[in-house]
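Support reply, case 0932

Customer input (verbatim):
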Amino acid sequence: MKMRMPAIPLITVDPYFSVWSYDKVNTHEAEHWTGGRNTIRGYVKIDSEIFRFLGRGDMKKIIPQVSVEADALSTTIVYENEKIRLTAVWTSPMLVTDLYLSSRPISYLKLFYESLDGFDHDVSVKLYCSEELTLNNAGDARVISKEEKIGELTAVRMGRGNRNVLWRSGDHVRIDWGWFYMAVKGEASVGNDLIDDLYTVYAETKLNNEALFLFAYDDIYSLEYFGERVKAYWKKDGKTINEALLEAAGEYESLTARCKAFSEDMYEKANRLGGLEYAEMLQLCYRQVMAAHKLAVDNEGKLIYISKECDSNGCAATVDVTYPSAPMFLYYNPELLKAMLNPIIKFAKSDAWPFDFAPHDVGQYPLVNGQVYRCNPKNGYDLEHQMPVEECGNMIILVAAICDKLGDYSFAEENIDLLEMWKEYLVKYGEDPENQLCTDDFAGTLAHNCNLSIKAIIGIAGYSKILSALGNAEQANAEMQIAKKYAQSFLDRAKNSDGSYALTYDRPETFSLKYNAVWDMLWKTDIFPESFYKGELMRYKKEMNYYGVPLDSREKYTKSDWTMWVACMADSKEDFEFFAKPLWSAYNTMRTRFAMTDWYYTDTSEMKKFRHRSVQGGLFFKLLMDKK
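Our regenerated output:
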């Protein structure tokens, strides 16, 4: 990978089980995506000398790191000294195409070496994992451990001594219940120790050319879902974590071959459509997107896939976070996208949600019990700060996109009453939205928001597509005529003198990224003329800074997801790369070292906020446009 990754993924399973590092993993302590330490130390003993290859903070010699590479599912780090070359391959096999593997909370580290000096060497490795993987903060509580033998695996588990499952929620909050496991395939010694005043568990084994470590986290129950505790999908048939670990160890070779093929296919398609820089960004963001979710089954047997709104407010299943993340799931596995919408639909149908517009969220991760955004337990919902046009448009567009991709409109048919109600809201308020929140109101709310109007137009058009597929041609045509009428109203009132279109109807000559219109191109609904897209692209090129196009006229910051959506307006690979390369450059030079941000300044590449968010799934939109 040419990019100097802003953060290096090591273990990426879900919002809690998350370990990242930096360019030199043997000089930096590993971290959780929040920036809290996740201390893991790794040592290699070569004959009688001990070298550190992972972590920092002691006086041990370091075996120099010479390269780091990453693809969609694995990170490969190579170290060398005058005696050996040590290779570490971290793999989190979260294959989006496989529901079980998307859920199983197990990650691998394979270590192997080769002699560089022509001599045989006695080589062993030892890994320490600290209490920080099982507590919100080190020292919060007493941690205990237990050694286990699991078939051919030698294992040790660690967890808080006094556990209270699913007892709290929050954004920068980490799990402190369940059990963390470290296992080694074959013979090893395991136990506990103190490292830098941290309780740790360790595993040590001979490196007879190679060794396989497995890391797992059994959270016992994953979510509270409308008052009931639910388990992760991988447990649905009664499988235990010991069984899953043994299974994972036995399928390492075949599974990593699947991961490699998946990653290579992604890279080839992305490179063909959008260039090398685009392909590298997809490779890097994939594990981040997957690890911002939790896959579970509710007590009615329905699939639920819950996102966490990381580094924001910790909301669960946020609609305007699902919407930008959708392209990756729509491309690879629409059933997972459907599972993201199931909680919103369940809540919207309940008596707890009395409004004629779609909810914003259904809780704060991992407590999925109903909307918490702008909701005070005593005073109820703050109606002035809801996002009704935004979320109604998002939900209808996503349902239409899922059904269109699957060629099956039963999901829409099952929920047609809700969709009809939300469509009516868009018809009533969407042509010229009043002052209300949208997903991009970082610089303040706006009345007469043109991009929000486009979302309403696309939402109405999406509903028309649904009706047409369900055989209601007359109403489908009527809805499409409304969408086209509103689109013409937008084209007449928002046009700037240079052929682009304004941020709001009452602010001429301004601009904004009109990313919502890209669905019109994907669906070939021809709501907006070719001149609209050309005019917008010309303006974006004019406004381009070194690291990207600003989100709108008000600030110099932008969003990575929307940048790649508007890049899909381009009718040539060269023009698409015009947008992809500055975004790649931003990640390549960014001084802030966290999992890929989606909100940064286009003139400096500095992160504004947001890290480890699932919205990076939006970078995959170009793959949906592939004609092959």
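We compared this against your earlier run and they match. Two observations from our side: The longest helix spans residues 252-274. The CA atoms of residues 413 and 470 lie 8 Å apart. Please reopen the case if you see a mismatch on your end.
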